[in-house]
Amino acid sequence: MVAGGGGGGATAIEREVGASSIRDFAWSELKRRWKKPDGELPFTGGKVELWEIDAKRQRGNPPKLGDYGPGTLLVGVAQRAADEPIIALGFVLDTAKESDAPKLVMDALGSLEGAAQ
Q1: Which pLDDT tens digit goes with each residue over 27-86?
Q2: 56 Cβ contact partners less than 8 Å away, ≥ 6 residues apart
Q3: Which of 83, 85, 107, 116 fits 9 for a cystine, CB–CB 3.0-4.6 Å?
Q4: For the residues of 4-34, what is the DSSP string, one character each?
Q5: Separation CA 111–CA 27 (nearest Å)
Q6: Residue among 87, 86, 56 nearest 71 (CA)
Q7: Does residue 10 contact residue 16 with C-beta atoms inside 8 Å?
Q8: What's the CA gap between 87 and 91, in Å, rounded?
Q9: How far apart are CA 49 and CA 98, in angstroms?
Q10: Residue 5 burial by Cβ neighbours in a 10 Å radius (0-12, 13-18, 19+)
């Protein structure tokens, strides 16, 4: 898998976050934990590796989504082919009810399953 084992997925994630409206993303904090994902989910032909980026994991400084405010960034990486990672970025604002956040993220990741086929 590119995520835990190589640099291609990491480079692509850094590029995608940089091109998005996500701000205050501490790449160095994610890079420190890159070889050990926070979680994994089954995916067609493999798995999706997941990393959560929030205030706790960024030493009190949460990532922000444009003018909407702070929240939690979820990064997901799956391998579609040898050199073709699928990268998913999800963002749940702090204003969302905390109990809704996991469902929102999982619904979004579930929609990737159909896109990969």
Answers
A1: 888 888 888 998 888 877 778 888 889 898 898 999 999 999 999 898 888 877 777 778
A2: none
A3: 85
A4: HH-SHHHHHHHHHHHHSSEES--HHHHHHTT
A5: 26
A6: 56
A7: no
A8: 13
A9: 22
A10: exposed
Residue owning tokens 């590119």: 2
Contact 110, 37 (CB under 8 A): no
Query: In the block, which residue shows the tokens 């444009």?
Result: 66
**Locate tokens 């890079």: which residue?**
31
Tokens of 106: 């999982």
Residue with tokens 């835990």: 4
**Measured distance CA(105)–CA(53) in Å, rounded:** 13
Tell me the two tokens of residue 61: 């400084």
